[in-house]
Amino acid sequence: MAQHRVHPALRPALIEVHVEQIEQLFYSIDPSPFHARDLDPQADDYIVACARELPRELSLALVIHLDRPLAPGQELAQLEAAIRSHFAASAGATRARLRELFRRGRISLLIGLAFLSLSIALGEFSRDWLPLGSPAQILRESLLIGGWVAMWRPMEIFLYDWWPIWARIRLLDRLARMPTRIVQRRHRPAPAEAAPAD
Which class for 68: exposed (0-12), middle (13-18), buried (19 or more C-beta within 10 A)? Predict the structure, then answer.
């Protein structure tokens, strides 16, 4: 069970997670040492989703409610470093994805402009060797439409596709800076059994 909330009198905004043991936060088949392991995909998705709902102007902090204490050799500093490293690596990978998107956008733009220029030139040239009339007009309009269709993909990249990725990078950067705190759950002792009556 997990929850998140913003405390009005406190900063930063808290993302709260409840797990039985700390290993549940990390990818179970990752053979890396504790301080270098990736977060479990579900834990990653949940923390990112919680952070996305919180005000952008606030810094973030992660509070882990833990049922079992950390194992020997596991320290809070290592846990915090592992979580920060995970989100920093995610931000780096997303930046690489954005660079690749812009690279494809530039190539698509060059191809689209070249095809659009060719379509316009062919349309103008057709005026000289096609008779006036409906078929020639349809051909010229088709060439022009085809040229603008070739511009659809680069326009989509530079107008719409890049900004959600940039927003995710900013969010991951915030997560890569957040401190981590552990709250150890206190187990109530079992009630003592009543002594048998004589």
Answer: middle
Residue 193 maps to a domain? no
Is 192 part of a structural domain of the chain?
Answer: no
Number of domains into which the chain is organized: 1
Helix pair angle (162-177, 41-53), 10° resolution: 100
With a CB cutoff of 8 Å and minimum separation 6, the contacts of 74 are 22, 34
Q: Tens digit of pLDDT per residue, the chain (198 long)?
A: 445 554 454 578 999 999 998 888 888 766 666 666 789 999 999 999 999 999 988 889 999 999 888 877 778 888 899 999 999 999 999 999 999 999 999 999 999 999 888 888 877 776 666 666 667 677 777 777 888 888 899 999 999 999 999 999 999 999 999 999 999 876 555 455 544 554
The model's pTM: 0.77
Which range marks the domain in which residue 33 is found?
A: 3-184
Structural domain includes residue 197: no
